[in-house]
Amino acid sequence: MAPHFVLGPGVPQQLLIQSAAAGDLPAFKKFARMLDGGKGRLKEAVEAVKNRGAGALHQAARYGRTAMCAYMVEELQVDIDAADELGHCEIVKVLLVKGANVDSSSDHGTPLHVAASKSQDGCMKILLDHHADCNKTFSTVCTPLIAAMMGRSLKCCKLLIEAGADVKGVGTFTPLIVAATEGLTDFYKCLLEGGADPDVPDKFGFLPIEIAARQNRRKDVEILLPVTSRIPSVHDWSVDGMITYVNKQVEVDPFFKIRPADLKLEGNRAYMRKDYLTAAKLYNMAIEHDPEDMTLYSNTSVCWLKMGKGMNALETAQVCRILRPDWPKGCYREGTAHMFMKDYEKACNAFLDGFKLDPANIEIENALREALKSLKASRAA
């Protein structure tokens, strides 16, 4: 049956969709260039075209146009998640039959990262069956397992662990810390059975059990208590004892007397007086109450940088990018962390990502220029 479209006849968007469905690559390239208008952003031009919620990539996969799919994903780097939910598995199957690289990278990581973050367990199984790397990192700290947890997909997490995913994580950004922070109670069992270490603290020295107790998650504490090494200062090593201990710590900690609505303001004040550790702690506490405020992650990253802790700054900036990939400031923060660590190539990539998102941003443009200069000098040395 011929494909049915609702876009107006003859318009470039309609012709692009039709050529994708027909597998007419020369015509598709022509209309993509027409829509781009000479800006050099073919990927964005193609992704912007939708027909009843489905894009060109989905249409090509639906009609089995393997060469067309390969061109869009491998050359234009159109994101697989640009298709609608139905199209994910179709596209993955078509591309793998065509011989596409199962671990190819895009702005959102590998196909496995995308499947994990979108809770696409069907696609994930196909990718894992084709030996996708379940431990490949994106933005240094984000493994497919972390992406699945951010997407709150227990099924994807189990699939990854069964496939051999590393449950230890990178640095202090571990799956158990994520589970404790996000309240992912149902995830503990598979993580612990997979070998996750409950004795690894976060950046501020708090163990997963302490994070859970601080947030009054009793069930979480019940699960973590038997597998966590005893904390010497906790005299009553029981669920009630742990929660009581943490609550007493909170009572004597002046930070916890600050109203949640004022945490960011107090963090800003601490930053202005150059008390960067206090500022970072306050921003981190504010994140617990308002995880959607990306400026809190950005500010925390700056604090770590001011304290000379480049890896902490990088981890925080990259978490920000994972949560909000379309925010230029997150790219900028990642770039500055890479610059501090003298990884100029990665700094260039991060700044370039930010500049693509906001071409008018002078701060990012200047940072990119400096990163390119440093990269050139380092290669000449």
TrEMBL record:
ANK repeats lie at residues 107-139, 171-203. Gene3D superfamilies: Ankyrin repeat-containing domain, Tetratricopeptide repeat domain. Keywords: ANK repeat, TPR repeat. Pfam families: Ank, Ank_2. TPR repeats lie at residues 328-361. The keyword Coiled coil does not apply. This is Os02g0492900 protein. It comes from Oryza sativa subsp. japonica.
